[in-house]
Amino acid sequence: MTVSYPQLPRQIAHPEPGVVAREEFSANELAVTAEVSTAALAEQARAEEEAIYVVSARFPRSQDDARQEILAMCRRKRFADSAKGRPGAIFEKTLGGETIRGFTVRFAEGAASAWGNLRRRASVIFDDPRKRIFRVVVEDIQKHVVWAKDAVVEKTVERRTEKDRHVLSVRTNSEGKRTYLVIATEDEMRMKENAEISRTERNLILKNIPGDILEEAWDV
Length: 220
Known about the structure:
Elements: E1 10-11, E2 19-24, E3 27-32, H1 38-58, H2 63-75, H3 77-80, E4 90-95, E5 98-103, H4 105-115, E6 118-127, E7 131-140, E8 145-154, E9 156-159, E10 167-172, E11 178-183, H5 186-208, H6 211-219
Antiparallel strand pairs: 1-2, 2-3, 4-5, 6-7, 7-8, 9-11, 10-11
Helix pairs in contact: 2-4, 2-6, 4-5
């Protein structure tokens, strides 16, 4: 007499990353898991890194062409002009009784596009209940020059009303009115993060562009 025993579950060879495949009792089962192979992620990151430098080598920057593109950009009225609520290419604000002027985020983003071969990235390096810190990096992948700076985003905002808010402190502003320091909502945090990262990127982008070209752009 021949006795047949049920076959034990066995792993199917070569499943895709993040997928567990089993064959048991004449049936196939695919189970998707949240874990993706660390080796696969590392390989993907390495391939992306190599591709960036390959593209940079194939399409090198011409400083003369980039300069002409930046100056042409500044001659466009709708780009340079700050009228009608547009940010324009130059900002002006008063701080401590002194007027400060400088290039805006809008200008820096346009200049980065014209300059080319610049890689920008931001990653969280610290996070606690009161603040989140981003490491902002701008890399010239053609010249192998890297500029980095930390952007600190406090998880609080000031509001004139405390209604439905978690109040941390209260102060009287210059108008004699009460101002409340409250915990920022997710939408408020998103806006603060985007603004702070953009301002930090602006400063790092400008470090990659020669000063004489920036002076010409300012004059235009």
